[in-house]
Amino acid sequence: MRATLLVATAVATCISLYCVGATFGYFHQPIPGIEVSPKASLLAFIAAPSFAVFATYILRRAPFSFGYVCSIYFLCIVVGYLWINPFSRLPYDHQAALVSAFLSGAALLVVLVTSSRLRLARFQLRPSFTELLPYALLVIGAVTVGAALRYNFHLVGLADIYQFRDSIDFPMPLRYANGIVQSTLLPFAFACFVERRRALPSIAALVLMAAFYPATLSKFAAFAPFWLLFLLALQRFSKPENAVILSVLLPLVVGLASLAVESGLHHGVYRVFGLINFRMFGVTSISMEVYNAFFYSHAPTHFCQIGFVRSLIGCPYDPQLGVELARAYELGNFNASLLSTEGIASVGTEWAPLTVLASGAILAFGSVMASHLPARFVLLSSGIVVQQIINVPLSTALLSHGAALLFLLWWLTPKMVPLDNPQ
């Protein structure tokens, strides 16, 4: 069953990216899109399926863990990039980049999956303290939301957020607090309440997450509560390992199904397909294409996008590499995952597999810190931060979005008795 779902997800990823290319082009103008040729098609049909087969072999019997969750999402990113690489007309060494992406993805999956077998000595908080902790996180969330709403409040639709978002300017402490509370603290509290069958506090956590939307005008804030409910529903009807795969496969299928309907509506505005297949999944693979092209003709950052490193060696680039890509390609702020930032951007294509492996080891360490916790609790508490991990640099996910804090909370949380899950 799991192998079938993995293969179906890889196929859906490739079909989705083909439709993205046909509908939007892989890039906005003036950057060229795709070039279909027999040679490119043959290479695409070799590279992407080969990695999908390798990943299926690695993941088909892997036990559930945080590393397993990350592996499923990175599988889609790598398969997607291997699929679009041969069709690209952007000027860089496509074959070297293809090999590097394959090795980076393979190294990442291996280290994430093997971490599920490791255990770590823990310092366990008292049960009475852990009972109060999620309520304390709700209070922190409420205070943070209130402070954010005092600085900005615009209750507008998703289509209108870009008219106001550039003018939002939170103080740095509040900016960090917004990211950590949304991505880590409130999802952690929600997972605690779900495990303890506390309905009203669970709803309160979701409401506070949604309340960040008019303050930050972030799509993450708008959809985060619904995403956690979606994950909660999936695990009630399938094993946790399959629920993770379905959290990718089902949205991809829904987006593809909507394409036929939307093609005749909205005058060519593909809202559902664009939001799911392009923005949520497609961009994560396309970012590897853009970063390979940019850093083929520019010097690597040597990690100077990280504040501490920047203070030591300086940096010719903006701290947010997405800003540099926006200037070069007119794509908007094009942030990307560790595959693109800690990998391609920081050390170049040739050495990217090594730094990706090191980044994977950090995520694997976090996975070990949650090894004693129920699968559903790990899935829900990490449901939002995983989305950040596949969309922003690992350093940003760890600090600005609180992934490092989540790892610490996992380590301190005592064992829980999981609710019954279908087997």
What do you see in this structure?
This protein has helices at residues 2-23, 38-59, 66-84, 94-114, 127-151, 172-195, 199-211, 213-216, 219-237, 240-262, 271-296, 307-313, 321-329, 339-347, 352-369, 375-381, 383-389, 394-399, 403-412. Helix 7 packs antiparallel against helix 9 (219-237). Mean pLDDT is 88; it is low at 27-34 and 419-423. The protein has 19 helices and no strands.
Features:
globular, single chain, 0% strand, mainly alpha, 19 helices, 423 residues, 69% helix
> Mind summarizing the main beta sheet?
none
Residue-averaged pLDDT, rounded?
A: 88
Tell me the series of helices and strands, N- to C-terminal.
Answer: HHHHHHHHHHHHHHHHHHH
Taking pLDDT < 50 over at least 5 consecutive residues as the criterion, the unreliable ranges are 27-34, 419-423
- Helix count from the secondary structure assignment: 19
Q: What percentage of residues falls in helices of 4 or more residues?
A: 55-70%
**Total count of strands:** 0
User: What general form does the structure show?
Assistant: globular
Kindly name the structural category.
Answer: mainly alpha
How much of the sequence lies in strands comes to: under 5%
| Assembly category | single chain
| Rg of Cα set | 21 Å
Spatial gap, N to C terminus = 12 Å
Summarize the structure.
The protein is mostly helical. It has helices spanning 2-23, 38-59, 66-84, 94-114, 127-151, 172-195, 199-211, 213-216, 219-237, 240-262, 271-296, 307-313, 321-329, 339-347, 352-369, 375-381, 383-389, 394-399, 403-412. It has 19 helices and no strands.
